[in-house]
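quick q for whoever's on today - can somebody do inverse folding on this one?? i tried earlier but teh output was garbage lol. tokens:
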């Protein structure tokens, strides 16, 4: 039985090719255009019906849904009409994704950066990354599609540097039949913490030599020739789910985007696509009255989008790059599949918000790692992609691209615990030369052994406690009461 609060509105969804403008019905497993190979955006043919409500009425509705007892409306589908208005309530998966906290920068860190800012901690999603937003939408659509097509088995597959595979495997495990999960990973390029996730969820985990881009080519061939559900960001339904980041951010700030700057790591470019798409939808419906500025951030070790936008208008030429190792592993992609989406949406974004509404910054590996440690030394839980965003904010301040009168939201896409190995390398100064990282000793932190290894041997608890306490007093310089 449907919950009385669940929307009755349904849209008509079509895949629209960004290269040749071909259109295809939304009730099929399509990822690239059969005519030209271009990537899709999903379009709701009945979007204009949403304008029957005013912007104020939409704001009121979304705020009211914050208290809904409907499971289907507790997560990203609070914004059902804007997101993917096709699945029925029974199709929607909810594992606790969305509504991740916006945490204001610690005062000392804010003062050091020179601009008010906050982290949106998307590492507090169920599988500890922002990818859960897209997976909740993609799997809800797949449940709807399997039910309507009466399919008895569909294999979900993705290439991953870690976070995508973790999210895909978890949602497939929860959804169960007829969905099954397999993931392809670049051998040796995924942290042990991230590798443990799809294994724990029971996915078939397959490794290939090479890098993410190589694995991506394999799953693209599978999707073109077999009935498999591709779950990388070529999947347009995933992009819709990730739009929820923009809706939540706007709602958190009372739907007021004035003087707000969003910093987003680019990676495969799905997230920045989704953020811009969601913001443009809200502007069109009058839910927000102005656009925030969006800054994409890339590492110098994987910077094709920065290179494109660094060239003067009229001379820009898209060319993939060969990546080198990066601590921002999710961003270590030399040929982001969503770049055509970025290019189209950025044009509209600049048209609506002005020439400074969309910009791309490049930062070094040293800046990323220093910023990651700096953020977490001030009480945050920023992953290396979150460090990349802070490095981007610091660079924007240095370049005079953002003023002290503005405020920023940084996207920490995953939980720092997924990248603890890089922290260990930083503290131990064991980064391989290709990373180009020399730790700042003022940020380094290592455990200290206070007593010899054999200090406990032959001593009772009271004597050992006295020795230990005296060692702590000497190390910390404590004064007696």
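ok took a stab at it. sequence:
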């Amino acid at each position: 039985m449907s919950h009385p609060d669940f929307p009755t509105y349904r849209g008509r969804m079509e895949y629209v090719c960004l290269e040749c403008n071909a259109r295809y019905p939304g009730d099929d497993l399509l990822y690239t255009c059969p005519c030209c190979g271009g990537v899709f955006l999903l379009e709701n043919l009945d979007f204009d019906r949403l304008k029957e409500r005013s912007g104020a009425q939409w704001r009121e509705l979304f705020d009211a849904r914050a208290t809904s007892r409907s499971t289907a409306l507790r997560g990203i589908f609070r914004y059902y009409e804007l997101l993917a208005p096709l699945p029925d309530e029974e199709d929607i998966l909810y594992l606790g994704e969305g509504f991740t906290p916006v945490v204001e920068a610690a005062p000392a860190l804010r003062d050091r950066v020179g601009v008010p800012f906050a982290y949106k901690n998307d590492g507090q999603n169920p599988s500890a990354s922002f990818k859960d937003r897209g997976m909740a939408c993609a799997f809800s659509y797949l449940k709807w599609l399997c039910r309507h097509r009466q399919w008895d088995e569909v294999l979900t597959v993705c290439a991953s540097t870690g976070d995508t595979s973790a999210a895909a495997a978890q949602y497939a495990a929860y959804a169960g039949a007829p969905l099954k999960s397999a993931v392809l990973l670049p051998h040796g390029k995924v942290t042990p913490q991230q590798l443990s996730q799809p294994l724990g969820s029971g996915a078939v985990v397959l490794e290939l030599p090479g890098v993410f881009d190589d694995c991506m080519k394999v799953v693209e061939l599978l999707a073109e020739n077999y009935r498999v559900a591709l779950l990388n960001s070529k999947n347009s339904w995933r992009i819709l789910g990730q739009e929820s980041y923009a809706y939540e951010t706007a709602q958190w700030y009372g739907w007021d985007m004035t003087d707000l700057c969003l910093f987003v790591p680019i990676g495969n470019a799905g997230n920045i696509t989704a953020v811009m798409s969601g913001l443009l939808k809200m502007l069109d419906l009058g839910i927000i009255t102005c656009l925030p500025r969006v800054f994409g951030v890339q590492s110098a070790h994987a910077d094709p989008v920065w290179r494109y936008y660094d060239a003067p208008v009229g001379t820009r030429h898209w060319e993939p790059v060969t990546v080198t190792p990066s601590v921002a592993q999710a961003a270590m992609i030399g040929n982001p599949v969503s770049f055509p989406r970025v290019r189209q949406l950025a044009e509209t974004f600049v048209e609506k918000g002005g020439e400074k509404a969309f910009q791309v910054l490049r930062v070094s590996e040293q800046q990323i790692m220093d910023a990651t440690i700096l953020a977490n030394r001030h009480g945050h839980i920023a992953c290396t992609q979150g460090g990349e965003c802070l490095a981007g904010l610091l660079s924007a301040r240095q370049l005079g691209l953002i003023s002290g009168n503005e405020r920023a939201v940084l996207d920490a896409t995953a939980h720092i615990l997924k990248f603890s190995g890089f922290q260990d390398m930083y503290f131990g100064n064991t980064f391989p030369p290709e990373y180009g990282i020399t730790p700042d000793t003022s940020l380094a932190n290592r455990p200290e052994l206070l007593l010899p290894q054999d200090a406990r041997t032959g001593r009772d608890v009271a004597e050992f406690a006295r020795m230990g306490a005296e060692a702590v007093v000497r190390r910390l310089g404590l004064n007696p009461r």
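fwiw The mean pLDDT is 94. also Residues 454-481 form one domain. so keep that in mind when u check it
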